[in-house]
Amino acid sequence: MEVLPVEGMPEVQPGDDLARLIAEHARPRAGDILVVAQKVVSKAEGRLRKLSDIEPTPEAEGLAREIDHDPRLVQAILDESIRVVRKQRILIVETRQGFICANAGIDHSNVPGEDTVSLLPEDSDRSAAELRARVRELAGVEVAVIVSDTFGRAWRMGIENVALGVAGLPVFADYRGQLDDHGKELQVTVVAIADELACAAELVMGKTARVPVVVIRGYTPEGRPGTGRDLVRPAELDLFR
Amino acid sequence: MEVLPVEGMPEVQPGDDLARLIAEHARPRAGDILVVAQKVVSKAEGRLRKLSDIEPTPEAEGLAREIDHDPRLVQAILDESIRVVRKQRILIVETRQGFICANAGIDHSNVPGEDTVSLLPEDSDRSAAELRARVRELAGVEVAVIVSDTFGRAWRMGIENVALGVAGLPVFADYRGQLDDHGKELQVTVVAIADELACAAELVMGKTARVPVVVIRGYTPEGRPGTGRDLVRPAELDLFR
Q1: Of chain A residues 104-163, which have a CB less than 8 A from chain B?
Q2: Residue to substitute from A118, A157, A181, A227, interface B, most B β-carbons within 10 A
Q3: At CA A131, angle to CA A127 and CA A135, rounded to 5?
Q4: What are the C-alpha distances in Å from B167 to residues A196, A220, B34, B134, B146?
Q5: In Å, how far is B15's CA from the nearest CA of chain A?
Q6: One digit per residue, pLDDT tens: chain B, 241 residues?
Q7: CA B156 – CA B199 distance, rounded (Å)
Q8: Of the candidates A10, A87, A78, the residue with the CA atom closest to the CA atom of residue A44
Q9: Which candidate from B195, B210, B219 shows the least CB-CB separation from A181?
């Protein structure tokens, strides 16, 4: 398996044809998995907000005082969320898409202007599917696409890349019912391979270098294609929210 | 970056010189990162228990009834744990090493005999350091070693590989204070690269195939070497335990 950074991508602007930029710079082959950083997807889709346009509600003002944040940023976070899960230094929320993450995935790095923040894509699975279809159209090859972002975790330090949106790829390797080398049935072994692929890609993305796209080559999981939504643990199965 | 499965490893037995098996089959080069599945480390170190040797306490009996488990397995889990974090279908515990995981990382797959379970290494950082030193001795090259296992996560479906023990490698990429392409300081961006490397490796390990060791080549993170212990979130910084 190879994990290849796509270099030389220009700064992405709202309205850009991101798939064309990817097709030109990544030169994808059939079967490649393209991991695309959420930030460039959001920028191409115009998922940006100017803080100076935001009028915080009293709720946002109160919360902002509590955690020492800019109330306009807190308002932007609340606008993207259905629930605050924890508040302590940062806001950990459940986003409209079901993700549990800090600040609803909103941040201001790698976005032009002091005043502008990027939001997560409205529907990362749709973003992934659209990129996949457009790459097929432009490059003539079937690829899989993962739209990824780095999230914090419970219990462990540091952030890690996750698959927000997925197209053309199984998201799990399901070993249930299979036998190990000793003929015993494997225990709970549904592996979140789409998240693991996002992790592999992050290693060569870096944060400051302009490598928003990574090609993973030589990995062909079997199974039915899934979505980023499948990776979100339903509330009733979640002991930690 | 290449992620290369090490094939042809024999079944590992208690007392085996695991580093020799790795050196012979992986043929490591200087700078390689060797990701070694916890299961073979535990087997080589004799970290196995026979359920038939275990006399469950009344506490284990009660807990076993509650979650419909073998009381001897529950006893083995309690023996490896300092605290039960959640009990519902499975036991999520804090292990003696600080890991929050299901069943204290104990399982019976890929272990010979219906009656035998494998425990996590007593000290995965020590295991990693010993493997690293012994590979240096045998193969004459400096490598990094990650001892990995798959853990479940809060909020997201599926298990994912994590770095339990680390030697010769920074565990975080710390971008704090660095500037993005627009000259703005990056926000919370301490990336758990050792966990991401474990994830990358898991993709080619599989669960049924006998690929307990993976070589990651062409990835050379900068920074001070860390440990698996550094990746464990201290209780006072953890909002979810």
Answers
A1: 107-114, 150, 152-162
A2: A157
A3: 175
A4: 21, 30, 10, 12, 7
A5: 20
A6: 999 999 999 999 999 999 999 999 999 999 999 999 999 999 999 999 999 999 999 999 999 999 988 999 999 999 999 999 999 878 999 999 999 999 999 988 878 777 999 999 999 999 999 999 999 999 999 999 999 999 999 999 999 999 999 999 999 998 877 777 777 666 668 999 999 999 999 999 976 667 999 999 999 998 999 999 999 999 888 888 7
A7: 15
A8: A10
A9: B210
pLDDT digit string (tens) for A86-110? 998 889 999 999 999 999 999 887 7
Q: Which domains does chain A have, with CATH numbers?
A: 2-46+121-231 (3.30.1330.100), 49-117 (3.90.1660.10)
pTM metric for this prediction: 0.95
Q: Establish if B202 touches chain A: CB-CB under 8 angstroms.
A: yes
Lookup: tokens for A42: 């959001």
Contact yes or no for A147/A163 (Cβ under 8 A): yes
**B11/A contact by beta carbon, under 8 A:** yes
Q: What is the pLDDT of residue A104?
A: 96
Task: For residues A105 and A81, give the distance between their C-alpha atoms in angstroms, rounded to a whole number.
Answer: 10
- CA B211 from chain centre, in angstroms, equals 15
Cβ neighbourhood burial of B162 (10 Å; 0-12, 13-18, 19+): buried
- Token pair in block for residue B64: 């076993």
CB contact under 8 A, B180 and A109: yes
ipTM of the complex, rounded to two decimals: 0.95
CB atoms within 10 A of CB B51: 18
Mean pLDDT, residues A54-75 = 94
Q: Do B189 and A182 touch (CB under 8 A)?
A: no
The 3-state secondary structure of A113-139, one letter per residue = CCCEEECCCCCHHHHHHHHHHHHHHHH
Residue of chain A minimizing CA distance to B230: A157
Can you tell me the distance from the alpha carbon of B83 to that of B100, in angstroms, rounded to the nearest whole number?
9
The pair of structure tokens assigned to A89 is: 């230094």
The pairing of strands B173-174 and B100-102 is unpaired
Residues in chain A: 241
